[in-house]
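Side project, low priority. Logging it here so it doesn't get lost.
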Amino acid sequence: MKFGVTFRLAAFGVAVGVMGVLIVLITLASQHEAEELRSRLNTVDSESFGIAGQFKDRLRELNTLRLRTVIDHDDPAVWDQFLKGSQVLSLWLGQQAPKLTTEHEKSVLAQVTAAFGDYLTSTRAMRAMPPLTGEHAEELEEFNFRLKSQKLFDLGQKLAMAHYDSRNQLLRHANQTLTRLRELMLGLLALLFVFGVALAALAYRDLIVPLRVKLVESQSLVERNEKLASLGLLAAGVAHEVRNPLTAIKAAVFMQQKKFHPGTPEYADVELVQREILRLERIVTDFLQFARPAEPELTLIPAGAPLKETQAFLAPELARSNIRLVVEESAPAQIQADAEQIKQVLINLVQNAADSIGRDGVITLRARADKKHLAGRERNVVVLEVSDTGKGIPADVEKRLFDPFFTTKSTGTGLGLSIAACLVQKHGGALQYQTQMHRGTTFGIVLPEAGR
C-alpha cells in the first residue's frame, strides 16, 4: 500500500476514532449530568419538606415553652428552657442559609429571621412586665401571641415553598446544559456519518478495488499454476517413457563408438550424440524429480558439513572461470536433514550464482543461527546461505523466480529452483533470498535447528 493511501486512511481513522471518543464522553457527561440533576432535585425536595416540618416542630415546642412561662411566670427554670429552645431555632435558621441559592429564598429567610426576632422581643417584654390582670387582659395577650406565632408559621411555610420553587431554576439550567450536549452530540454523529462514508469510499477505492484486481490476478495465477502442474505431470509421464529408450540408445551409441577412431568425423558425431543423450537424461531426471520428489531421510548432521562438501565438489570447476568458492567459519550447530538433498539444493544455488557472475567473482557459503517463523511459530533456526557478487535478479524475473519451467537460460529446464524449494519445504524449512541489482544475491536455506 502506498504511503499516501496509508496516511489518508490513518487520518480518517483517527478522526473517526476521536469523534467516537467525543460522543462517548458526551454521552457519559449527559448521564452524569442527569444523575447529578436527579440527586440535586431529590435533595431539594427533601430539604423543602425538612424545612417545613422542622420549622413547625421547633416553633411548636417553643410556643409550648412560652405558654409555660406565662403560666409559671416566676419559675426561672421554665424561662431557661424557653431561651435554650429559642437558641436552637435561631441556630437552625442560621444553618438554612447555605442551602438557599435564589434571592427570593434569601429574602424569605430574612423575613423569617426578623419575625422570629420580633417574636423573641415580645416574649422578653412580656417576661419583664408583671402578670396582667383583668377580664380580657389574658385573652388580649394570647391573641397577640397567636398572631406572631401564626406569622412565623406562615413565613416558615413560605420559606419551604421558596426553596422548593428553586428546583425550577435548577431544571431550567439542567435543560439548557443537556440541550447543548444533545446538539453537540448530534453534530458529532452527523460528522461521524460523513467521515464514515468518506472512509468507506476511500477504503473501497484504495483497498477493495486493488484487492479485487489482485484477486483476479491471483485466480489467473492459480489457473496458470494448475495448467503448469498438469503439464508437469504430463511431462513427467513422458519423461518416464523416454528414459528407457534413451538407455537403449545410449548403449547402442557406445557400441558404435568403438568402431570409429578418435579424430575422425564419425567419432566426433558419436560424441555429440552422447552429449545430447546426457542432456536429455538430465532433463528427464529433473522432470521426474519435480513430479515425484523423494522423501528426505533425516539424520543429525553438522550444519557446516553440506557447505564444505559442496565447496570440495564445485570449487575446482568454478576456478576455471576465476570464481572463488569460500566457506566462512561459523558457530557449531546441528540440523536434522537429508545430507544429499541439502547438498543438491546447495549445488543448484551455487551453479545459479556462478551463472549470474559469469567470470571473476566470489561465492560465499556460510551457516548462521537465527530466529524465524516456521510452521506458524517463532523458533531457533540455522540458515545456510549462498551469497554471490553477481548481477542481481531483475524485478520482472523475481515475479516468476520459483515458477516451474520458467528459466532465463537457453539450455535450462526452469525446474532447479522449484525442486530446491520443494526439497527445503519437505525438511520443514523455507527457501528465501535477497537481491540487489549489480550488487549480488543471497539465497538462504532456513532449517529448524536440531533439538530446538
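Brief comment: The longest helix spans residues 137-257.
Revisit when time allows.
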